[in-house]
Every structure is written in C-alpha cells, then in structure tokens.
Amino acid sequence: MRKHGLGLVRQCYLSKASQNCIEKSLQKRIMSYWKWESIFGRFTLSDWDPIKKDNIMVTGYLSSAIGLYEQASGDRQYHQKNALEFVIDDGKHYKTNYEGLADALHENMDNNPYCLYPCEPNWTYSLCNLTGMAGLVISDRILGRDLGARLRNRFERSLEEEFTECDGRILPIRSEFTGLTLPGLCGTLTDCINAMLLTAYLPHLAHRNWAMIRKEFIKYDEKDQLVVHDLKGADKMDPGNYRAGEGPLRAFIAATAAEFGDEKVRKEALDQLDNVYFPIEATKTGSLRNKGLSATSQVIALMARLVKQRDLANATLHGPSDEALSGPLLEDAPFPEVLVAKAYSEDGKKLDLVLYNGKEPGSFKLGFERLVPGKQYSLSTGGSVTANSTGKAWAEVKINGRTQIMLQPAA
User: Fold this and answer.
1) 162, 138, 165: which is closest to 149 by C-alpha?
2) d(CA 198, CA 134)
3) Which residues form the Linalool dehydratase/isomerase domain (predicted)?
C-alpha cells in the first residue's frame, strides 16, 4: 500500500502510527513474556535477551515492520545506536538497532539445523519464519547486504524437507526437540498466509500453494456461490480472537486472491465477508468496519480491498522509487478528520494527493515538507503556497468526499 500510494506521509498520522506500533512492541507489558519463556523453556535464569536465541516472533515481525516503515518513509531513526530498547523486566533492558535486529535474525537462521528457528523455545512456526525472511530481504536492500539470498537454498530445502507434507501443504508448526507436529492444523487459512508470504522470496512455492487452494479447496455450488471444502480446525475460527466460525477465512482467501490477481475470488470472498458473516457498520468517527471481526482479520480484509497483483512481493523486493522518496511530503493532516488515500510523487517534484473527509466534509489545514526553500507551489484546488527556509509550507483545503489535489512548482 505505501509502496504505491502512501509513501510520502512521513510525519502524518500513518507514520506516527507505525512508530507507535514499533515502540510499543518494546515495552515491558509486551515483552515480559520472554522472561517466563526463558525460565521455563530453556531454564535461563538471568540472560533474557529477546533476540539472541530463538524468538522469531520478535526478530521476524519487528524486522519486517521496521523495514517496511523505513523503505516507505525514508526515516532511518532506528539505525542509530541503541535505538531499540527491549524492556523485559525491571532492570532487564536490552538495546540494539535495526541492523542488530537483522543480524540476530540471520545468525539464528544460520546456526539452527532447520534454518527455520523457534518462536518460544521448542516450537518452530513456518509462518513466523516466512515473515522473518521477508524482514531479512528488506533489511538487505536497506543495508546493502545479501544475507537472505545466501540463505535461500538452505531455507527452501528445510521448508520442503522438514516442514512440508506429502500433499504439498506446509506444516504451520513443528517441535524442535522432538520433530513432532500438532495434527489438524494444515488448512486453507494457513495455506493462504504461506502463499502470500512466499510470493517475494520463493515465488514457485507461492504459486504451488495458491494452485492447491484454488483447484482443490475453493469450489462453486449450484448457485455459483463460492464455498470452501475440507475445512480444518484453524479454518473454523478467527485467528485474532479465537471465536468459532468460518467467516474470517474469507478475508484470508480474498487477500491471497488479490496478491495473485484473481479478481473473481477476491470480490466474491469479500462480498460474503461483508454481507453474510460480518456486516459492515459505521463507527462514531465515520470509518467502516466488519462488525465482530477481530483486529487481525480486519487488517487482512483491508489488504484484500487495497492490494493488487504482486503488491506484497513488490513491497518486499523493491519499495518506492528514489524519485518518490526525494519528493515533497504530506507532513501533517488532522486525523480522523482527513483520510489519506494517496500521497505520491512520480518525479520528485510534484505531490499527488487523494484525500477523503472523515465523518464530515470541511476545510482542513495540511502541512507540507521537503519543498525547495523559497519556492512557490501551486495547488490544483486553487491558490498557492511558498516554502519557508526549511522547506515547509501549509495550506487550507476543502475536502468533500474524494478530493484530488496536485501540489507542484509554480510555472
């Protein structure tokens, strides 16, 4: 999403929300679990460093989150020494930065016999490792390395030989100590996540997973309605809140179909999600949501509505262009009064905005940054602004429904 349309909203609410998510994940209320995992999982009584050994659910997901944020915004604050401080317990603080996080991710994969490594001690989840590998690939591009490429053959061999069933489905979990798995977890929902996560790193495996989903499990009944066959345990609940029901599966099917360019399945799965399982309702701010759907599955549904073919792969492999990252920024917009659908620069000089009002239309003040100091810029909605000595400017604009605004250097 930010690769194509929202890459230039650095200090606006989208970037602030990204920073808040990253920094909240370091706090004691989130990270204190690792103290108990270390004590009871590995009998470690003092060294509770959350990235040194195991814990792919921290190194993997946080590397991906920071990498996607940095490549979309151009912000490099997490490269600074000790920029990331994990608080495990009172007096137990562990500091690193983005490069250190990526190093820990690589070292754990490089040292583990499976290449894939555990979340909590013992249990290795393939989904977490696929997310982690995406994070390593993004970090390679940002940091100018090739650690992910060097691990590719080993990672693929382990995924195929140690985590794949005879029918081609990837196991979601395996015990590092015993080699055993938990039966009944391989289902269409996990197949969907695998397919989405593999499109960048191992696209041939991604297409194999999507082909199985599309040909073997997604069918059409006599009324030409989409149905999903052979549901397993994980397919019958919402992974975000563990409530029973097969409705959330439609969000995952729709998002995967979007990544693979299957518009028919995407639209029909979303239609069932919105009209059969979780009807859409308006919140007090005017935003829309699927009533009763967990936050996790809401995000997947949002991806299904926004993503086009190979967007996830391209965000992992490429990110925004240099021109986009050098162009003007939408620095400030009031939230939730102003909703940003697009903020993008094709040539590094103009800024193309598509904005919507929140609950009510009106006039709103927008802040711009990274302009040429002293230069005048015209607005397609009328009027102009002049950048101050630091390259910043502000403008009052009217927003009523979909509003396109082009900011460009005055002739």
Assistant:
1) 138
2) 8
3) 12-288
